Amino acid sequence: MKKQDKNKLRLWQDRLKTNEAAYDGETSRMDEREALYAGTNEMRPIVQGERKTKAVHVRNICAEIIEAQTDSNIPQPKVTARRKQDEMKAKLIEDMLRNELDRMPFEQLNDIMERTVPIQGGAAFLVEWDNTQRTHFTIGELAVSTLHPKQIIPQDGVYTGIEDMDYIILKIPQTKEYIRRRYDVDVSDESEEEPDIKGTGGDTTANDLVTQYIAYYRNDKGGIGLYSWVNDTQLEDLEDYQARRLRRCVKCGAVEPLLTEPEMDAPDILLPNGMSTAAEVDFDAAADALARETRPLPLRGGRKKCPYCGGSKWEETEEEFEEIPVAVTRSDGSTIGGMVRREEASDTETDELGLPVVEIIEEPTKVPFYKPDIFPVILQKNVSVYGRFLGDSDIDKIADQQNTTNRIESKIIDKLLKSGSYITLPDEASIRVDAEDMKVIRPGNAATKALIDVYDLQGNVEQDMVYLSQVYEEARQIIGITDSFQGRTDRTATSGKAKEFAAAQSAGRLESKRVMKDAAYAALFEAMFKFKLAYTDEPRPVVSNDIHGNAQYETFNRYDFLEQDAAGEWCWNDQFLFSCDTSAPLASNREAMWQETRMNLQTGAFGDPAQIQTLILFWTKMELLHYPGAGETRAYLEEELHKQQLQQQMAMQMQMAQQQMQQAQMQRQQNGGLDMQTAQAVIQRAQQDAARDSGQTMGANAPV
Fold first, then answer.
1. 479: left (phi over 0), alpha (psi -120 to 50) or beta
2. Distance in angstroms (rounded) separating the CA atoms of residues 210 and 189
3. Is the pLDDT at 108 greater than 90, yes or no?
4. Strand (E) or helix (H) holding 645
5. d(CA 322, CA 317)
6. Secondary structure in 3-state letters for 503-529
7. What is the DSSP string of 544-596?
8. Structure-model confidence comparison of residues 259 and 670, the more confident one
9. Where are the alpha helices (DSSP H) in 104-136?
10. Whether this model's pTM surpasses 0.85
11. Per residue in 611-625, pLDDT tens?
């Protein structure tokens, strides 16, 4: 924590107000869009003098069209290596990203984005590194959340992309207790400034919540800075928030260890910054000192005591380089790091010739820390529009049709309710009105009776229904939704192929939205990889499946991406291309893949369908696609193939035995005869060889 900087606080508060005012035209329509999607009964007047402002019945075509476009498939990563030697690393990154998609609740995140993006025209992902998620073996995990466009205040005038902005400001509703735990700042007396960012109609202020403002900005070095505040209270001010930070002793610069239990002795030899308190460096003692950094430390007044100088004051420092005193083994078996010896001329000591004494200094290998240097906000647009931060909203396009539909529905209901049967009576006649079936009318005379009549009045809604259908078709055609795309009866499609073609044509109109979704996820995958590369100190396990469907266990080690250039300088290899696997939606549709696999079998793509080897290949593919019982069927076919192979081998051995007998008989005839005992021995030896070879083959080919 830095001291409160009132000038910086006022600067960011002024920026927030200025950009809020410029963005107000967009935010003012967001609640209206959400209300239309929810099915509001508010109506705008169509003709002058209309008094009805609320509909009694709403056909929510906005929600129907938005829901028709919802895609529950989560785009899968595709990573391409720019160099041939990095192909295995690209596959490892793909598997790591798939593991992260499974670990985090991306089903919920995707479900929220699938509705927010077409309603508002866009929304965003927020990528963070949560250092509080710790296990016995790891520290920190990736955290991805969604941002409603009401929570985002972009820099005014910059519409080409977030990475082109100098800064972007977020509004996050947080609990007061979270602020206290996270920043050690008491905001119990503060109030919630903007309760409406919690959702539609959320104007009620919660006593336990506050509005936290987070500003991400590009610093002078090209990195990303962070400034955060609540009302008039500063929470965090980090000039380079993606840089690594360590708490060091103010007096000697030693790194603050994690453990806090007392230990009486502390070494006074090698300091972490390479300085020594002795005239000569004892490297064995230095190694012991480095090992003791993980031991418990003494306390002084409830605060940690430095094991080197005894100081108790610590401060956070930005670290540019990482020290690796012990060699680290990478996935390919190579090692990096360790202590490096170098020669340095002494400034104080000279030899007998008056030359400076050359000292051998051993230092740990230093490598630069990796920094993503990207904004952690990933924007997903609905449809790109020139000169707008967000994309085009589907609700804005069909808002007029929704209002007209509400008007016509109300008019139809009025006509139907006001229709009915009416009776005319003369003034002299009277009728008893009650629940009895037989009503009594006293007309008085025959002339008055002739005046009694009944009129059935029916409202004509035929034209209203025709225009209502026309308005509905207008709304669907604007967005590009057809009956085939919705799965409804399509009378224009005269065959199954025609219906499939109609659905494909509708999907083609909506392809732009899927492309924008894939582009957002590709940027998200790249950000996730860069955050993992920057902050995962420990090797992380990665699980994947091979072509046989068996689990393969690998390790994501960030040091695998550390390289040395031609000059010997250490650098990080992040030169990978990120996109989305376009075949993933089809692969996730198991029934369609089963059908495709059966068709491939029938057309001979796997080989002759009558061959048992072809059937084994077919059922292996079906097992990879999780077809029920495919594994048992494949195992049965493999057993049958094994039996056939054994029978063939036995037949071959018997044929060889017969050939040996024939050769023996021929030899006997040539040599003047051979006794029967020798012939039987030859036959018995051939049978033993056949049985032995058959047993060896059975053992070698037995199924595992």
1. alpha
2. 10
3. yes
4. helix 630-670
5. 13
6. HHHHHHHCHHHHHHHHHHHHHHHHHHH
7. EE-TTS-EEEEEE-GGGGEEE-TTS-EEE---EEEEE-TTHHHHH-HHHHHHH
8. 670
9. 106-120
10. no
11. 888 888 888 878 777
